[in-house]
Amino acid sequence: MADMTHHKFLKAPYTVGIVGAAFSGGQPRGGVEQGPARLVEFGLPSQLSSLGWNVDIDEKFPTYEHLRPPSDQDIGKLKNARYVSAVTKSVSDSVKSLVAKGHLALTLGGDHSLAMGTISGSAAVYPDVGVIWVDAHADINTPETTETGNLHGCPVSFLMGLPGARNIPSFEWLSPCLPTNRIVYIGLRDVDVPEKKILKDNNIKAFSMHEVDKYGIGKVVEMALDYLGRDKPVHLSFDVDALDPSVAPATGTPVRGGLTFREGHFICEAVYETGNLVAVDIMEVNPLLGDQAYVLQTIQIGCSLTRTALGETLL
Ligand SMILES: [Mn+2]
């Protein structure tokens, strides 16, 4: 068993609860719902056991089909809103119960709309949780600004309860739980014009690829952790499209100019070292996009990012 960091917000013996969130309703491309099963088949649970964790997983992967409404007409521009709401509510309950027990909640996606569930779940236990959102995209469109109506581009505005993203029909369960100063973005490079305005108007902390190039990843992560507070619980929400498509190609919305393999892993290493983690999301691994080699490469990266966020070190 490896030496484990002291975790300020977890109860010993340290347990990771895996939520296999097999869901793709927040975006139009099929396949991302198969991400969690492929990560598990590749051996993720036993890899985490070898790091010293007790692993709590329902290998049957509860499907969310029973939550699919019989009909789901667009609400304004929003697609599948009732289905996304029902699934994210279920994920929120799962994450909340794990975090409340002092377990680390590890959610494997699935598309990034799931973060409405994961972050509301950890914030229900820790209202001062700080979120590190690693992504090519800001995912902060509101029901008014979204062009596509795909909810994986909107979770942050819902969590914050920004104007236009409050009291949305079918999302009555989700009350604002993420103050605008409790999130830091890393890796942004494809941000819609209205999203840029939202980030600026609300003074939201964001390190785009420009800042990663300018300061280096070490300094960026240090600034991010200082900003959130070194004594506060941390929720890491990692969209694999933050990585350059040459590193993680099998994902729905790849954007060139992304994080290198090491930059992505460095973020996970540094966040783990704080001992403040309460929840980790690994999102948007889509095993149906690209040829087999690309898919395998992306699944391997999903596993290695997770291991690193849970304590695997190079030495
Ligand atoms: Mn995302």
From TrEMBL:
Originating organism: Spizellomyces punctatus (strain DAOM BR117)
Q: Which reaction does it catalyse?
A: L-arginine + H2O = urea + L-ornithine
GO terms of molecular function? arginase activity; manganese ion binding; ornithine carbamoyltransferase inhibitor activity; zinc ion binding
Q: What is the lineage of its organism?
A: Eukaryota, Fungi, Fungi incertae sedis, Chytridiomycota, Chytridiomycota incertae sedis
The cofactor note reads: Binds 2 manganese ions per subunit.
User: Which Gene Ontology terms describe the biological processes this protein takes part in?
Assistant: arginine metabolic process; regulation of ornithine metabolic process; urea cycle
Q: What class of enzyme is it?
A: hydrolase
Give EC number(s), comma-separated.
3.5.3.1
Q: What cofactors does the UniProt entry give for this protein?
A: Mn(2+)
Indicate what this protein is called per its UniProt record. Arginase
